[in-house]
TrEMBL record:
Predominant localisation class: cytoplasm
Pfam families registered for this protein in UniProt: Dynein_light (PF01221)
GO molecular function: dynein intermediate chain binding
Record family assignment: Belongs to the dynein light chain family.
GO cellular component: cytoplasmic dynein complex; microtubule; nucleus
Entry-linked SMART domains: Dynein_light
Keywords, alphabetical: Cytoplasm, Cytoskeleton, Dynein, Microtubule, Motor protein, mRNA transport, Nucleus, Protein transport, Transport
Gene3D superfamilies named in the record: Protein Inhibitor Of Neuronal Nitric Oxide Synthase
Domain of life: Eukaryota
Provenance organism: Halteria grandinella
BP-aspect Gene Ontology terms: microtubule-based process; mRNA transport; protein transport
The keyword DNA-binding is annotated on this UniProt entry: no
Protein name: Dynein light chain
Subcellular localization(s) per the UniProt record: Cytoplasm, Cytoskeleton; Nucleus
Length: 87
């Protein structure tokens, strides 16, 4: 079951946003990481206003600034998803 493979590393967003991000990725697989990042970013731009950024991949590091209550970093299996609103 895909839900068993979800591991939330950290987040600072409301429950609706968190579940939308997770459900979006679960419904979109399997796709290339760059396509997932682009589609999730566009979905959040449309639903929750602009300036969302998204990184999807297996090996990356980051140091970001984000608006309060607009950040999530989670894994589905070995795929990492980082989504945040900047500016």
């Amino acid at each position: 079951m895909a839900e068993d493979r979800i591991r939330i590393e950290s987040y600072d967003m409301n429950e609706d946003m968190k579940m939308r991000a997770i459900d979006f990725i679960l419904a979109s697989q399997p796709e290339k990481a760059e396509d997932l990042a682009k589609k999730l970013k566009l979905d959040f731009d449309q639903k929750f206003n602009c300036s969302w950024q998204c990184v999807v991949g297996k090996n990356f590091g980051c140091d970001i600034g984000f608006e309060d209550r607009h950040y999530i970093y989670f894994y589905i299996g070995t795929l990492a998803i980082l989504l945040w609103k900047a500016g």
